[in-house]
Amino acid sequence: MGETLSRQNTLLVALGKKAHLADMKRFLSLLALASIATPLTLAQEPVAEKPAPVADPPQQPATDFIRIEEDEKAARLQTSVTRYQKEGVTLDLIGAVHIADKKYYTALNKSFEKYDALLFEMVGGENLVEGKVPEGGREGGDLQTKFLRGMVDGMSRFLKLSSQMIDVDYSPKNFVHADLTLKQFEKKQNNNGESIFSFALAAAQQAENNGVKQPNPAKLLAALLSGNSDGLKLEMMKSLGQGDDQIAALAGDNVIISDRNAKCLRVLKKQVKRGHNKLGIFYGAAHFPDMEKRLVEKGYQKTSQEWMTAWDVPKPQKKPQKEKEPSVEKKAG
Predict the structure, then answer these.
(1) How far apart are CA 8 and CA 329, in angstroms?
(2) Residue 173 vs residues 96, 137, 152, 281: alpha-carbon distances, Å
(3) Exposure letters 184-202 (e unless 16+ CB within 10 A, then b)
(4) Which of 63, 179, 246, 298 is the most exposed place for a label (fewest CB within 10 A)?
(5) Rg, C-alpha atoms of the chain
């Protein structure tokens, strides 16, 4: 009984001392925003004029940057490594989720070694000291930033997942900061009247309008109150695996996706001019549909795609029922 109460108290603190399902849905929207991809249609080649009208050429299939793979025993949240090439330059878009199994980040760290330059996202990343957040840096930021950080940290503990900020090694010399500075980000958001919360709420509304499958409220609440981290992850996957629908209509003029992607690709251009021809971009997967569209417009062509497992969650297994022993009737006498 004491252990169950402790779990509940820890979770209540992590969620701002309230375990309402509405708050959880907002959290899922924020996590989807930071962690998931939106498939968009690639740019099409213009159709040559002909005397007679012709049908439009078929659109190229949308690229998925995140997916759910599952079987009877487990469900797996996976992110992609998608490769593009242009004039001797090879570029990998390496999708990220910001809380995941520790072995996922171990595999990523190993894979980063092969790049001439690895461009990474992190608003305020210009302040890293030898690849580490400076002392006191994790406590800084405005109220919005502190709340989001506390919520993600609390959920990573409850879900028994590791944190990208802790387990990714940002110290290698081939790491290149390719994101807005903290001052640039705050200024652009103020000018646009934009916030992470407003963007997340718009994504949640878009999901509702499009009928995106949401976690089962009863199962979600049961997992929360019982401390069942695997059960909660299985329910969250329903939203995370369809995060493309939550963000698809929101990839226009905004700071969170559009402006940061533009900054990243300016850094990419500089790295190519320096003679680097094997490059990687390590960003939250939600950025990649818009980024892919920009790359295709610049002449990059997609050539291959691989997948990495971020969450590997076992499903509850049904216990085999014991066969009933045949009853023996006792004769009287």
Answers:
(1) 51
(2) 20, 22, 28, 15
(3) bbbebbeeeebebeebbeb
(4) 298
(5) 23
- Residues 259-279 as b/e (b if ≥16 CB within 10 A, e otherwise) read bbbebbbebbeebbeeebbeb
Pick from 55, 160, 149, 164: nearest CA to 109: 164
CA–CA distance, 136 with 256 (Å, rounded to integer): 24
Q: Residue 91 pLDDT > 60, yes or no?
A: yes
Residue 242's alpha-carbon distances to 54, 65, 197, 229, 310, in angstroms, are 35, 11, 19, 20, 16
Q: Is the dihedral of CA 133, 137, 138, 142 positive or negative?
A: negative
Contact present, 92 and 278 (Cβ < 8 Å): no
Q: What is the pLDDT of residue 171?
A: 94
The answer on pLDDT for 36 being more than 80 is: no
pTM above threshold 0.70 = yes
pLDDT higher than threshold 80 for residue 49? no
With CA atoms as reference, report the closest residue to 7 among 164, 217, 316, 232. 232
Assess contact for 246 and 204: CB atoms under 8 A: yes
Residue 156 CB neighbour total at 10 angstroms: 19
What stretch of H or E contains 80? strand 74-86
Closest CA to 76 of 98, 104, 48, 54: 104
Structure tokens at 220: 């979600």
Dihedral sign from CA coordinates of 206, 210, 214, 218 = positive
**Number of Cα atoms under 13 Å in the Cβ half of residue 318:** 4
Encode pLDDT of 279-292 as tens digits. 999 998 888 989 99
Pairing verdict, β 74-86 and 89-96: antiparallel
Contact 239, 26 (CB under 8 A): no
Residue with more model confidence, 298 or 11: 298
Place of tokens 């439009």: 56
Q: How many CB atoms lie within 10 A of CB 60?
A: 13
Work out the pLDDT band at 95, boundaries 50, 70, 90. Answer: very high
